[in-house]
Design brief:
Layout (H helix, E strand, L loop, with lengths): L3 H17 L2 H9 L3 H26 L7 H14 L2 H11 L4 H6 L4 H17 L4 H27 L8 H21 L5 H24 L1
Length: 215
């Protein structure tokens, strides 16, 4: 049985490529976005980030002792991700959206689909599925976050990290997280967990592509 991380990369590669070859994504990575579209993207990201730790907690609460290493990984990961929705709020304030407006924003149907699936999968499908969510989001952030944040800075003439603190920081941070995720994924040898994580990663790539294309 090959290491699961390598298997996950292979089995989810088609959906990842759908994201990176989307004309909308390619244009944003090369040319950035208008201020209006960037604000819309940040508003959708706010909801994804806000629900990230509760979803992880839902999974961690159901993971049995046979997979305790996954639970401990999630504990540490949740600690590191705590409060990151505030970074999104700070970027939105730079873009002219006050904090009160952020909370009033209604997420798109694609964002609701992504969040809803992840809660359902963690609670009803298989709790280790949260690792698929983490994998998909960290691949997107670590591989595409850097070029995208640079393109946004140039297009909108933003200075330093002002307005792009969330995306810029996660481009670096999630590259480190990916190394940690690889280690914990390779501890999984049961088919049920592997299948649930693979399904989750594919669906998260799919929904995130739709979110990006819709803004």
């Amino acid at each position: 049985m090959q290491p699961f991380f390598l298997e996950l990369v292979t089995l989810t590669d088609e959906e990842r490529r759908r994201f990176e070859t989307s004309p909308v994504v390619l244009d944003a990575v090369v040319s950035g976005m208008s201020a209006e579209r960037y604000r819309k993207l940040l508003l959708e990201l706010y909801h994804i980030v806000w629900h990230f730790n509760p979803i992880c907690a839902a999974g961690a609460s159901r993971i049995p002792d046979t997979h305790r290493q996954i639970r401990y990984f999630l504990y540490e990961h949740m600690y590191e991700e705590s409060g990151h929705e505030e970074w999104v709020i700070n970027d939105l304030e730079v873009m002219g959206i006050v904090k009160e407006e952020v909370g009033e924003h209604q997420p798109s149907k694609f964002t609701l689909a992504l969040i809803g699936y992840n809660y359902w999968a963690a609670d009803r499908r298989q709790p280790c599925s949260v690792l698929g969510m983490i994998y998909a989001l960290e691949v997107i952030a670590s591989v595409y976050g850097g070029p995208f944040s640079l393109a946004i800075k140039e297009a909108l003439q933003l200075q330093n990290e002002s307005g792009t603190s969330f995306i810029s920081s996660h481009a670096t941070m999630d590259a480190e997280h990916m190394a940690e995720l690889r280690l914990v994924l390779n501890t999984l040898h049961d088919a049920e967990s592997r299948s649930a994580i693979t399904e989750s990663a594919i669906i998260n790539f799919h929904h995130f592509t739709q979110i990006f294309e819709a803004v």
